[in-house]
Design goal:
408 residues, alpha+beta, 11 helices, 32% helix, 28% strand
Length: 408
């Protein structure tokens, strides 16, 4: 299927407007946007996936209930304050965010989903948030996607946005999205936030299954530091304005929609991995020829999450033993005596292990491969035909510097 990347991000699809404005939630953030609103001109099918951390932020708890109804029309997000571990006062703040947004837009409160990101354990400054939401609603625009993407950033170094177009039957459908995440990234749902919009017509139940499937092969296959946030959330709104034949069940239309949604989610997930706090390299781990897909996923995530592996890549050291070690403790069903390991980048490809043991290889050639900004680790288990891919980054001195005084 042909998928065309276009501009526009979260407002690329028909009928969506957005805005990102500076409210001043963090006194030190100068004029950085910190409140965003995404709005569909008509009610939309809604779906979401959320952190499995048992400590859930107030907006996650609220939005889980709201999105479970299968319909939504707006999303309001703030950065600079996670509204997590804030008790009943925090829960009330999340409800007020929904109420203020609904009032400004003239829609039902039950159609507004809420998300927050930032420092844990501090109450939201309600007056500042309320003013910010009103300002964001007043500035809604079909061109507002980029400002919204800026507003949800915390330690991110760049905004994460993508939009694509593809065909469903005789109709052109658009999918757009934005995400944030740089540290506290080890999603298990789905700190990361992701918001996706589409003008496709699709039943909420099918949309929920499709989103979960896309998240499992994208956001759930990245790791920066092994921490699963209290605020992780990915939401999707589908307003049907493309007027395609409504997707109601499995079949060709759902397969085409799934392919496009996977594309968007994987692209956003890779941007998060690339922008890991302090990162200097994007790492991709490909596990091939596992007995079952679950084994491939376990092995790939173990390698991409290993602090020792990530440190070795920062040091540009082809320490294949750390890779094989991580595969071994991943709980994947493997035969160590069959495993092959390759390192690959724009500078070339080299095999470093065969049948579970090291090979003689040119260290200088390996060094050149590891000096590139994007590196692939290919692990062939030689046991079956299933595979998986995970993404992450190296672990640098700057990660510690960034997180040592994050709260202050």
């Amino acid at each position: 299927m042909a998928i065309t990347v276009i501009s526009g991000g979260v407002t690329a699809a028909q009928g969506f407007q957005s805005a990102g404005i500076h409210a001043g939630i963090k006194k030190s953030s100068k004029k950085k946007p910190d409140v965003a609103v995404i709005f569909s001109e008509v009610p939309a099918a809604a779906a979401g996936v959320y952190t499995q951390n048992r400590v859930k932020a107030a907006p996650v708890v609220l939005t889980q209930k709201t999105a479970a109804m299968g319909q939504g029309q707006a999303i309001v997000v703030n950065s600079g304050n996670a509204n997590a571990c804030t008790g009943e006062e925090g829960a009330q703040s999340a409800r007020l965010m929904a109420a203020w947004t609904a009032q400004g837009l003239g829609i039902e409160e039950g159609l507004v989903m809420v998300a927050s990101t930032g420092v844990i354990g501090q109450q939201l400054p309600r007056d500042i948030i309320q003013s910010g939401i009103k300002n964001a609603v007043d500035h809604l625009s079909p061109e507002g996607g980029h400002e919204a993407a800026l507003a949800i950033m915390t330690t991110d170094l760049f905004s994460k946005e993508i939009a694509v177009q593809f065909s469903l039957g005789d109709k052109t459908v658009t999918l757009g999205g934005m995400s944030k995440g740089s540290g506290m990234i080890h999603p298990n749902m789905a700190t990361m936030l992701g918001f996706i919009t589409t003008d496709a017509s699709i039943e909420p139940e099918i949309l929920q299954k499709s989103l979960k499937k896309a998240v499992d092969k994208s956001f759930n296959m990245i790791s920066v530091d092994g921490d699963t946030s209290t605020n992780d959330m990915t939401l999707i709104l589908a307003n049907g304005l493309a007027e395609n034949k409504t997707i109601e069940s499995d079949g060709a239309l759902l397969e085409q929609f799934q392919e496009a949604l996977d594309y968007v989610c994987i692209a956003l997930a890779k941007m998060i991995a690339q922008d890991g706090e302090g990162a200097s390299k994007l790492l991709e781990v490909q596990v091939q020829n596992a007995l079952i897909e679950a084994d491939a996923k376990k092995a790939a995530k173990a390698v991409i999450s290993s602090s020792l592996v990530k440190s070795a890549f920062f040091g540009e050291d082809a320490n294949w033993g750390r890779i094989l070690c991580a595969v071994g403790y991943s709980e994947a069903n493997i035969d160590p005596d069959r495993v092959e390991i390759f390192l690959e980048s724009a500078a070339g490809r080299i095999q470093v292990a065969d049948q579970g043991t090291g090979l003689l290889f040119n260290e200088e050639d390996a060094k050149k491969i590891l000096q590139e900004k994007e590196i692939k680790v290919i692990i062939d288990l030689h046991q079956g035909s299933q595979g998986a891919v995970a993404w992450g980054c190296d672990l640098t001195y700057d990660y510690v510097k960034i997180n040592a005084d994050y709260r202050t």
